[in-house]
Specification:
The protein is of the alpha+beta class. The protein has 15 helices and 31 strands.
């Protein structure tokens, strides 16, 4: 492709709506443009990248034995009603009506539709196992679309679904998909961790996320520095300290004038924050609930909701707290008659300092189980320095972007929708399912979050819009002719080439090449041409290598293959 004929509308200024590196560079590099909040159109460069990502995903899914299908995006509400998600999915579901007042929605995910597809025709154990997938646009009415392609209302996704005769066989399908995902993420050139995760609105049990490490990642994850344990903090398990049997005095009031925060109370009493009890008041499905964690810990919203068995959990307002419990800043469990959830780290038999439910008053030596009763649960966020629940090593915190999610659904959908089969003994049983998602368009942005510098994008060669840019440094027919010869030689080898034939200064061309992230660059200059050589440089390299003109095409071909790129069939 000649640059002079290409549609690459780069921008010099950073768009005001862009805050993350990927959002900035996708807009500046002419990869995407925003149509509306959370809605983007893919320009030629962006589509080339997304198509390459989809091709890698498709190849590995096919290699793993999955079969591709395509389901509609516009779905009647009846299927979501069967599973119960028409109500439970909430406002995220994009709902609409047709001219006959029939109710529909745009698919955020397709568990119900694929289950219906299979239940229509799969009746016997002889037809299983089965794995079906699609690569298609999804729709979610995000309350706050942000970060460009990372959090959209419309996005491209690969979703696969496995169907098995038993939980054991479903785990085998899950492991096969796990290995396929490893191959996909390695081929994409991404540094990632596979972490234990929460299944969220999809349901299911066994669950793992493929988290791409990125400074601007929206997910917090922890990983052990000694073993392979890793988990999203929403499910990361804590190591509970051993319970002590030493006698503890009865609770006693202590005056703490004006001391409302954990830091102030601990300092005033000369205690570490770990000897205090932090009180969080939440409203769980409309019910005021007290949540207790150790003073040096933080509560985790997802864990709290799980412990409360609630679909919706929010922090209580100051008014709700004052009217329903006591003075803000001095709350505690002693004397509170409502529901209490206590983190397991408080179940040590030790006395803690808690609020006294009176202004300027706290209580010393409050013991869980003796002075108050509570539901015990893991509701705190695990973080840096915590011990690994698997090996006892030290956990380290990372930020990550979820690139893929795999989980065993079990019979969550098949039982509700009567997707059954007859086993070897002619007994009817529900099919055991699994679900496996990859955010294809999201990975375009995710790759940039991990691969960029102050000059622009640094695409892995496997997904770059073009393998190499060819340009001249200076003007002259001899330079142009040499550049055209190399351009033609590279194309003949199946190399994807962007020939920068614009009438621009070399510095402008080099900056644009760095901005859009072309991995390799060939420059024809007067001095090099006089010596029969051209400059060859990768996006990662500081200095170019002088390569004889006759060897340039072979040199570029070798670099592409070594870097995991694919040549087009001639």
């Amino acid at each position: 492709m000649r640059y002079s004929q290409a549609f690459i509308p780069t921008l010099k200024e950073v768009p005001k709506e862009a805050t993350t590196p990927s959002h900035v560079l996708l807009l500046r590099g002419g990869f995407v443009r925003m149509v509306g909040a959370g809605i983007y159109e893919m320009l030629p460069l962006g589509l080339r990248v997304m198509t390459k990502i989809a091709a890698i995903v498709r190849e590995e899914m096919d290699r793993a034995g999955a079969q591709e299908v395509l389901m509609p995006a516009l779905l009647p509400k009846e299927y979501f009603e069967e599973s119960g998600r028409w109500e439970s999915f909430g406002d995220t579901l994009l709902r609409l009506k047709d001219r006959k007042a029939g109710e529909y929605h745009l698919g955020p995910t397709h568990e119900e539709i694929i289950t219906d597809m299979v239940r229509r025709d799969v009746k016997s154990y002889r037809q299983l196992p089965l794995n079906l997938y699609q690569i298609q646009m999804k729709f979610r009415d995000e309350a706050r679309p942000r970060a460009g392609l990372l959090r959209c209302r419309e996005f491209m996704m690969k979703d696969a679904y496995s169907f098995d005769t038993s939980e054991q066989n479903a785990i085998a399908s899950y492991e096969a998909m796990r290995e396929a995902y490893h191959r996909i993420f390695r081929r994409l050139g991404l540094d990632y961790r596979i972490v234990a995760a929460d299944s969220g609105a999809m349901g299911g049990s066994t669950s793992a996320e493929f988290q791409v490490l990125a400074q601007n990642g929206e997910d917090a994850i922890v990983a052990c520095t000694k073993c392979d344990y890793a988990a999203n903090v929403e499910v990361a398990a804590q190591v509970v300290p051993a319970k002590k049997t030493d006698a503890v005095s009865a609770p006693s009031k202590v005056a703490t004038p004006g001391k409302k925060t954990i830091e102030d109370v601990a300092k005033f009493l000369g205690l570490p924050a770990s000897r205090t009890m932090k009180t969080l008041m939440v409203v769980a499905d409309g019910k005021l609930t007290m949540v207790l964690v150790r003073g040096d810990h933080e509560g985790n919203d997802v864990k709290i909701a799980r412990a409360a068995g609630a679909r919706e959990v929010r922090m209580a307002s100051d008014v709700e707290i004052r009217e329903g419990v006591g003075p803000v800043g001095y709350l505690g469990p002693v004397g509170w008659s409502g529901p209490v959830i206590a983190d397991m780290s408080l179940d040590t038999g030790e006395g803690f300092v808690s609020g006294g439910n009176e202004v300027d008053v706290h209580l010393r030596d409050v013991v869980l189980g003796r002075d108050f009763q509570a539901k015990l649960a893991d509701v705190r966020t695990v973080g840096n320095g915590d011990p690994c629940p698997r090996c006892g090593g030290e956990l380290k915190s990372y930020r990550g972007i979820e690139g893929g999610h795999i989980f065993v659904l079990g019979t969550h959908y098949s039982a509700k929708m009567r997707a059954t089969f007859l086993d070897e003994n002619n007994v009817e049983k529900p099919i055991v399912m699994g679900c496996y998602g990859i955010g294809v368009s999201r990975l375009v942005a995710t790759s940039i979050e991990q691969h960029h510098d102050e000059n622009g994008i640094k695409w892995p060669i496997a997904i770059a819009p073009y393998h190499v840019v060819v340009t001249t440094a200076g003007k002259g027919d001899d330079l142009d002719q040499a550049a055209v010869r190399i351009y033609d030689e590279l194309r003949a080898k199946g190399v994807e080439v962007l020939f920068d034939d614009r009438d621009e200064r070399p510095g402008v061309k080099f900056k644009d090449a760095d901005l859009i992230g072309i991995p390799l660059r060939v420059v024809i200059g007067k001095k090099g041409l006089a010596e029969g050589k051209a400059e060859v440089k990768s996006r990662e390299e500081k200095d170019p290598t002088m390569v004889p003109l006759a060897e340039v095409a072979a040199s570029i071909e070798q670099r592409i293959v070594a870097g995991g790129g694919r040549l087009r069939a001639s």
